[in-house]
Design brief:
- It is built from seven helices and ten strands.
- By secondary structure, the protein is an alpha+beta fold.
- It has two domains: 69 residues, no CATH class; 114 residues, Aminopeptidase (3-Layer(aba) Sandwich).
- It has a ten-stranded mixed sheet, sandwiched between helices.
């Protein structure tokens, strides 16, 4: 995960392992529109746009407190350390564009909010799912995060939850990605405890808590 974030931010990996409050200049275009922090076991990374580097460096505690107090989004960043946990479910198969109508039906059943958070698509670099009775019950797919990293999205039919289907598809797609040497990331909203439990069940470990706030004023 250090390789992924150091590549995205254009900094040395060692900077991300420092203790305490650490200011990291974020040169990505969207950084100018927000303030962000990542809280890890080692400390808190202050992701500051170039124009705010001096502000964050001069008063790091105040910068972190501002983001925490005004956060409009808090996400949990999980990473797969080795092989995905769990046994493979023989019902899981690779999905493609021919399964578009099945995904459309699943997203309708799940609702707009859940579908938006899931960020899944049958035409992502890799998508797998469980289809029974002409219905797509669960899907997990990979989004390219740049370099050798991928992010896992998952969506399960509301009527089919608590049957282990989400774990089955996430474990399958994560195992395929890990075998190809990819760094596998699983993000979910802080308040989505069910999604966080799913990540842990598949062998993911929580690395950081990402908080995002708009620019002050």
């Amino acid at each position: 995960m250090l390789t992924l974030w150091s590549s995205q931010l254009g900094v040395e990996p060692g900077l991300l392992e420092r203790d305490g409050l650490v200011t990291v200049v974020d040169h990505r275009d969207f950084a100018a529109e927000r303030r962000a922090t990542i809280r890890t076991a080692r400390g808190t990374l202050l992701l500051a746009a170039p124009a705010e580097e001096q502000v964050a460096a001069a008063e790091p505690a105040a910068y972190a407190a501002d983001v925490a107090g005004r956060a409009r989004g808090v996400g949990l960043l999980h990473y797969l350390g080795g092989r995905s946990a769990g046994d493979r479910d023989p019902r899981v198969r690779v999905l493609d564009a021919a399964d578009r109508s099945l995904l459309d039906e699943l997203q309708t059943a799940a609702g707009a909010a859940a579908s938006e958070e899931a960020e899944v698509d049958v035409e992502d670099p890799l998508a797998v799912g469980i289809v029974e009775g002409g219905r797509l019950l669960a899907i997990a797919s990979l989004l390219d995060e740049g370099g050798d990293a991928v992010d896992v999205g998952v969506l399960v039919d509301p009527e089919e939850r608590r049957r282990g289907l989400g774990v089955a598809v996430v474990c399958d797609v994560s195992e395929r990605a890990a075998r190809s040497g990819r760094l596998v990331q699983y993000r979910c909203n802080h308040e989505n405890e069910a999604s966080a439990r799913l990540a842990r069940a598949c062998g993911f470990t929580l690395w950081g808590v990402l908080s995002i706030a708009s620019q002050p004023g």
